[in-house]
Amino acid sequence: MLVPNTNRQTTPKQTIAAQIEARLRHDILHGVLAPGSKLNLDRLRESMAVGLSPLREAVNRLVATGLVESEAMKGYTVTPISVANLDEVAALRIELEPYALRRSMENGGLDWEAGVMGALHRLNHTDRIHGDPASLSDWEAANNAFHEALIARCDMPLLIKMYHQLVALNDRYRLIYLKATPIQRDVIDEHTAIANAAVDRRADEAAALLTGHITRSTRNLRRLIAAELPDATSI
């Protein structure tokens, strides 16, 4: 019987695979690797100057997240985008994220409240300037940090894992479509209302505000996608 080694150290191969995964994830989320495009492992191996084994491991990790699809005899493909997929991601977020927030509100103390309000302050004071990749990247990081702070005390690891997977799938749509589109909506008031309701332990109100926030964001993305993919609603 094999006994798990709880003190196992990270191997160089694992470190390289994680670095490759991070780079590929970035390129997929930002549309550098286009939705629906084939991933040629030999070309990627040469362009990234890495071995095939850690590259394959990294790609398989991305398959597990839903950002890459694998089909026998056909290889790997960046997961296509569609209105149907965006709607599914949003529907799952609406079911799971408010529940994670409720759990976090039940378990969170003063440190959690400080974390939420600190993340809100940073987000509200981070500029989001159309056409400026650096400011957009900073805002995305602050936005994700705020939403993670809200559910930081959720005591369900599987739920948190699912949350991160759904956020990555959702971020791909936002990063691809909003980088070329002027920002139409100011979300400072929305974020502030969610944070205040959360730290005041107004659970029903906080959950409803978060649901509305996700719904409005999805509606804006849906409109952009439908405009570029005329038949996307049937995909």
Automatic annotation (TrEMBL):
The gene is rspR_4. It comes from the Bacteria. SMART domains: FCD, HTH_GNTR. This is HTH-type transcriptional repressor RspR. Keywords: DNA-binding, Transcription, Transcription regulation. SUPFAM superfamilies: GntR ligand-binding domain-like (SSF48008), Winged helix' DNA-binding domain (SSF46785). GO terms for molecular function: DNA binding; DNA-binding transcription factor activity. Residues 14-81 form the HTH gntR-type domain.
